[in-house]
Every structure is written in structure tokens, then in C-alpha cells.
Amino acid sequence: MKRQQVEKLGEILSFVAAAIVIIPIFLVIIFIFINGVQAISWEFLSQAPRNGMTEGGIWPAILGTILLTLVTAIVVMPFGIGAAIYLAEYAGDNWFTKAIHMAIVNLAGIPSIVYGLFGLGAFVLFFNLGTSIIAGALTLGLMTLPIIISTAEEAILSVPQEFRIVSRSLGATHWQTVRYVVLPNATPGIITGVILGLVRAAGETAPILFTVAAFYLPELPRSLMDQTMALPYHLYVISTQVPAMPLQIQYGTALVLLLMVLSFTMVAAVIRALMRRRREW
Amino acid sequence: MSIEDDLLTPDRPPIQSVEQTGVKSKSELVVETLIRITGFSVIVIIALIFFFLLREGLPAFRQISIGQFFGSRWYPIDNQYGILSLLVGSLLVTSGAIIIAVPLGLVTAVYLGEIAPTWQREILKPFIEVLAGIPSIVLGFFGWIVLAPAIVRFGAPTGLTAFTGSLLLAYMSLPTIISVTEDALYAVPKDYRDGSLAIGATHWQTIWRVSVPAARSGIVIAIMLGIGRAIGETMAVMLVTGNAANIPRLGPAAFFEPVRTMTATIAAEMGEVASGGLHYNVLFAIGIILFVITFIINSLASRLVGGDKPRRRGGQL
Fold this sequence. Notes:
- The complex is a heterodimer of chains A (281) and B (317).
- With 281 residues, chain A is an all-alpha fold.
- Chain A has helices at 2-36, 42-46, 59-90, 95-109, 112-126, 133-157, 161-169, 174-203, 206-209, 231-240, 247-278, and strands at 49-50, 55-56.
- Chain A contains 11 helices and 2 strands.
- In chain A, helix 3 crosses helix 6 (133-157).
- Chain A is globular, with a radius of gyration of 23 Å.
- Helix content of chain B is 67%, strand content 1%.
- Chain B contains 13 helices and 2 strands, in the order αααββαααααααααα.
- In chain B, helix 4 (84-115) runs parallel beside helix 7, helix 10 (216-232) packs antiparallel against helix 13 (278-304) and helix 12 packs antiparallel against helix 13 (278-304).
């Protein structure tokens, strides 16, 4: 019976390990929620901060994050999806393609602060964009690129080969097949990947530290060349650099950021689930 | 998940040759050329990043020697730019994170992949994805406000230590480690398990003596990706490791001293340096070191792939 006992013990230990992983996640979210929900009000979400940030709302930071994410999306989607189409449909099975895949894996592994450094050196200084939304979006876009390429490539590859064969056998060219057969079927997967990539970009602080973020701006940004406030940076500053910042506002800001990120992650998950159910293959 | 898949499934069967059908219009050629360009641009981009880092970082070595750069005192005010303490800080925090995360992640992956009933899997996996999505600043905030004081209440002199950083980093690396390990375990051929069970081994024995060893290379990749994730993390460690550029005394107590990582140094000091000055260049030089470290880790991980799964195009119709 010894082996069976080991088996039971093993199963319990594994469950405990999984619990050690999962429970703190749950706790962190609940904790931030409980402590931050009192700060959330329409006023908090829609007004600018006052009185040295200790009162008022965080609207400019929310708007800034939304703006940055939108511009990042515009910047990264053509390149990311285009590269994915290339890799999935046009690239040959040679060393060059392998090199591109290696480059993607490496880009994905670059620390976010190094992206921030590059953004500073290249976009802010060399290309003279200054600390601006466009500089920040380009930096975030670069960081998001490998994620989008990978997920889009996988989405395109998962379209069954039979679809392509039938399309070509009916006389369509390669691009016609891609555009009218492959891409429409890959679109839900691509969208999921884009959302997840953008969600990651929205929550990042390091790439925007020196490329766009400002702590307090008297006005909302009016053009791509303006600086902006942003939620992650805002949270960073109010929790570490401002003395006597009310704890509730800190928790509230953290909660807003967390909820934004979590809700869009759920949207992506829902799309993925729906797509799996409606799949024709 | 797909980036890790990139590592586990690099090879594909040759693209089936399809007869050239249809007539390609000129606009099609334009579109296809554009697509090819975006494909190539990925390599251009990574080269550009490296180039810019070099461009802004190498000038530092006109004024300080390599020996000074790897010295043990980091006092920019005093013109001392020795990054040894920062390297040690990053190393300490990362290794602590791996020590915590790898056993935990491996066993959790085993649980999810082999032991847990489907309904549990459906609930637990989203949680892990949620963890992957939590912004690092939020976790750092939690560590700063909740975790560090809690550690003090457990008797430590300060809560802002390498250990706190390791704890946070461990949780941040866990989703990567778990998902890659799960994929690796999934890729183990069913015959291995069936054979083991057929000769009388228990499920548990099969897992640890057959499946896990068979998934060895994938698990190593998972660990390396976890290391890469941990070394590169900035905000979470910046908030909880105490930011003291000291080299702690040798021994396990080192984990409970405040340290400073390379990433936190860049983030904390870049805002205050004059562009083009020595301090500025040195921070970029630290960036070069980070780039090279993660490049080596990722390239090694790629090399380790023996081509377990050929990349299939298309599902089963």
C-alpha cells in the first residue's frame, strides 16, 4: 500500500502547491478592491487632481492611458499583423525565417526598462520627438510588437490548410486566398492577441518613464507631441514620491488600473471562447 | 503563450507547393512586397535597438575603464560607477525568485496538467492568466504597502529586502514557468505514459519518473524564460527591494538585506541625469548589459529546442 499512499500524498501536495500559487492572486485583487473601492466615485474618475494630488480625481491619467494605448494600437497593428502574415503565409522554411523568429523571441525578452532607454535615445532625443505621446506610443508599440506577431501568426497558422487548398484550386491567387479566406477566419484570434498585447502596454510603467509620462499637467494633452499623465506612472509617483498622500487615493488608483486591465483581459478571453465555439473546424 | 510556443515548436514541414493559379495583379504585388517588408523589419528593429544602446552607452568607456565599471562602489555623485553591487542585487533577487518559483511552478504545472480534474483546470487556469496580466506597478504597490510591513511584523528589521523582491518576482514569473512547463508536459507522447502505467507504475510514479524527465528540455526552457522575466523586471523590484547599492554579506542572510537591481537603478536615476553626460552614458551601458544577458538567455533557450513538435499548419477539418 506504500505506493498508493505516496500517490495520495503527492496529489495533496500538488494541490497545495497550486493553492499557494492561486490564493495570493485572489487575495491581492480582493485586498486592493476592498481598500480602493471607497475612493471610486464618478468624481474620482472624471476630475483632475487638486491640492497637490491629494484630492480630486485621476481623469487625466485615465485619459492619458487610453490615448497612449490607442496610438500604440495604430502604430503596432500594421507592422505586427503584416509581419505575422508574412511569417505564416509567405516566408520560406529557411535560415532567414528562423532568424526572424529568433528576433521575435529576443524582442519579447528585452526588459521593459531597456525599451524605455531605447525610446529615450531614439525617439525622444535622436528623432527629436521630445517626451510626447508619439514617442511613448512608439516605444510601447515596439514592446508590444513581438506579442502581437506571435499570437497573430498562431491564429493564422491555425486556419486549416484545406481552406487554402480549396481557395487556390478555385483559381484564387495567394493574396486573394489570404485576404478573403485566411484572414477572416484568423481575425478573432488576431483580435484576442491584439487586445492582450495592448492591455500589457497599458499597464507598463518603465517604457513611459522617460518618453512621455508627466506627473502633473495643468491641461489635458492636445496633440501627439504633448506629454500626458498615465495611470501606471501616476500610481508609481503617488505611492512613492508624494508625502502624505491619502492611502485611499493610492488604492483607488491601483484599483482603477487593475480593473481596466482585468476587464479587457476578460473581453479577450470571452472573444477567444466565443470563437472556439463558433469555429467551423 | 505563443512566444514560448515559438521556442518549443520552431520547425515546420516545408510549405506544400501549390500550383501558381490565378493572375497576380500589380496591386497584389505591392501588397505582398509591403508584407515582406514588415517581416524583415523585425530583424531591423532588434538591430536598431542594440545599435542605439551601443551608441549611447559606449561613450561611457571613454571616461571610465572597464575595471572601474565593474567596481563595487556605485556613487554617481562621487563619480564612482561600479555596477558590481547592482549586478549582485539583480542576481540575488532573480535567484531567490527562481528558487521559489521553479518548484512551485513545476508542481503546479504537474497538478494542472496531470492531476486536476477538468472543472478545476477550467477555474484555475484563468486565475493564472489573470496573474500574468496584473501590471507590475500594481504588484509593486501591493508589495510596498502590504507585503513589506507584513514581513516586518514577522520579525525582520526591514521589509524592503531582496527577499521581498524575490517573492514578488516569483509570482510574476510563475505564469510563464507554469504555462511553458504545461506545454512541455503535454508534448510528451502518450505512449510513454501508457507504457509506464502498463508495467505497473502508479500515476504519481509515471509523472515524476517518465513524463517530467521526458519534458526536461521544455522545463529548462521554462526556467530560462522565468529567469529572463525576473532579471528584466523593473517597477516591482524598485518599490520593494530597498534600493541600497550595497553588496550584502555572503550567506543566506544576504536575502534579507536591501539591495538594488540594475533595472531599478536605470529607472530611478535616468530622470535626473543630463543627457549626454557620463552618468547618462553609464545608465545606457547598464542597459547594454541587460540586453546582452536577456539575449544570451533567450538564444540559449532557443538552441535547447530539439524540435519536439513540428509546427503544423491548420487544424483538423
